[in-house]
Design goal:
The protein is α+β, with helices and mostly antiparallel strands. 45% of the residues lie in helices and 22% in strands. Strands 8-5-4-11-10-9 form a 6-stranded antiparallel sheet. A 3-stranded antiparallel sheet has the order 1-3-2. A two-stranded antiparallel sheet has the order 6-7. Strand 10 and strand 11 form a beta hairpin. The chain is globular. The termini are far apart.
């Protein structure tokens, strides 16, 4: 199979947002020269897109001719916390499930990234005297092919989307151990669908394991997120899997219902 070419954005808005995607934890500051080198823009084009982003508050000048994320990002994050139906549903359902020996993690999907939007539980877990940091937290993105929370969404995509995902990312899929060929990958996804959940061990946080289930819109097969419980890896076994599947499935149903109600309330408040 030949992977389809990834199209670059053609609109000015899409190209401007390409500039934002150059920023990361590893590279939080940006120069005009970085935009030119990494996106192939002329200096005048790079300046134009950076200026538009600054005017919108999405970028802000820093020292030494550099640019950082702008204050509008903070405003949008606050708006998201107050209005995102999936986040609000998690806030409503998950606190009652909190346990000191594990962490609950609610996820959404952004392109081919899985984004943690809510964490219920401590930042570290203790097992046999060892403190294990939990690396997932709100705003942390991870690949679609690593971790139970990611696989619990990936396996429940529409068949066409699963195939397109493989065509785009066959090498990454093979490295993740999900299949060296399309048939192997397809059978791996089918096995997760049959079981109704996914598991992983030490794929995101060393010495932590996870069990995750998809979250579907009520009455539909559309995946809107995933819910995972993370805990020390040594505890992962058939009994824990069954217990997690029971609890997470019930919570996922409650979150889906609360998601619909939050969306309905939000739409009503805008009238």
């Amino acid at each position: 199979m030949n992977a389809p070419a990834i199209a670059r954005p053609t609109s000015s808005l899409g190209r401007a947002f390409e500039v934002l995607e150059l920023l990361s934890v590893e590279h939080p500051l940006l120069r005009i020269e970085d935009v030119m080198a990494r996106l192939g823009y002329t200096r005048s084009t790079a300046y134009r897109y950076v200026k538009e982003l600054c005017d919108a508050g999405l970028l802000a000048p820093s020292s030494g001719g550099m640019y950082a994320l702008g204050p509008r990002i903070v405003e949008l994050e606050r708006l998201l916390v107050m209005t995102d139906p999936l986040y609000l549903a998690g806030c409503q359902v998950l606190p009652a499930m909190r346990r000191p020996d594990s962490v609950l993690l609610l996820h959404n999907l952004y392109r081919d990234k899985v984004l943690c939007i809510y964490k219920e539980g401590p930042d570290t877990l203790e097992h046999k005297g060892e403190r294990i940091p939990v690396r997932r937290s709100r705003g942390t993105a991870f690949p679609l092919f690593r971790g139970a929370a990611s696989l619990a969404m990936l396996a429940f995509f529409r068949p066409h989307r699963i195939r397109q995902t493989y065509l785009r990312s066959a090498e990454e899929i093979a490295k993740a151990g999900l299949g060296r060929t399309w048939d192997e990958f397809r059978h791996t996804m089918a096995a997760i669908r049959r079981s109704g959940y996914a598991t992983s061990r030490s794929q995101i946080s060393p010495n932590l394991a996870g069990v995750a289930v998809p979250i579907f819109l009520p009455g539909e097969k559309k995946v809107i997120g995933s819910l995972a419980r993370a805990f020390p890896g040594e505890l992962l076994g058939p009994e824990i899997e069954r217990e997690c599947l029971h609890d997470l499935s019930a919570a996922a149903d409650s979150i889906a219902q609360a998601f619909v109600e939050a969306g309905r309330d939000g739409a009503g408040s805008g009238r």
